[in-house]
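Internal ticket #5521
Category: modeling
Description: The requester needs a full-assembly model to guide mutagenesis choices. All entity lines are attached below as received. Residue total reported by intake: 248.
Assigned to: D.W.
Attached entities:
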Amino acid sequence: MKKLKIMLVCGFGLGSSMILKMTLDKVLKNNAINAETFCSDEATARGQFFDIVFTSEEMSKLFHGSDKPVIVIKNFLSSAELEEKGLEIIRKLSQEG
Amino acid sequence: MLRDYLQPELIRFHVKAQDWQTAIYLGGELLVNQQICTQKYIDACIQASYDLGPYMVISPGIALAHSRPENGALQIGMSIITLDPAVNFGNKNNDPVGLLITFCGIDHNSHIGMLQELATFLMDERNQQFLFKVNTAEELITYLQDSERKM
């Protein structure tokens, strides 16, 4: 199993992405997945090393052309949405490594 | 605990705002009045939404406004206002906004505990529903005390 680096992105890397990180950490814990989660901001996100990114629709434009999976989340407080959109790919990438 | 951050002066219900800029201004005014941030910080919160888009609407009906600490943050804190009627922030998935939280942190880490409390509270939909129907700061504070006692 590979320990994935999962990046959460918002404008400043302080607020929305922090909330998204908390929701994702809860999902990972509930599903017994060990991954590193970290926040980044609009200015520096593209230069970070990561395996998968979760962000809003607006911020997802930063990653056009990226070869990494970009998961667009509408409701940052919804564990159900994060699980539905992200769990399968997180499991798959964890197992590949 | 969440109530440690929420004195009555930082809570307003059924606020009327004609647009999202006014809403952030009014939410921010509560922080400025308590000397948690300067007016420059609130102006920067509004500018951030112009620059970065309405992604601050993090969940249906809920917006989280903030800026960078160096734009005039003085203390860690947040204000909560409900908007009645709800206001469009330009976020097609999550508009209109009925609950606006404006927060301020003094560095990159020290506000995380406060946001954790807030996120845990908001992840429970019963708590969200309560926020949309409550009328006074005292009712909210009593509710927070009761839910903390049950934890």
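Resolution: model delivered.
Comment from assignee: The domain at 2-150 of chain B is CATH 3.40.930.10 (Mannitol-specific EII; Chain A).
Ticket closed.
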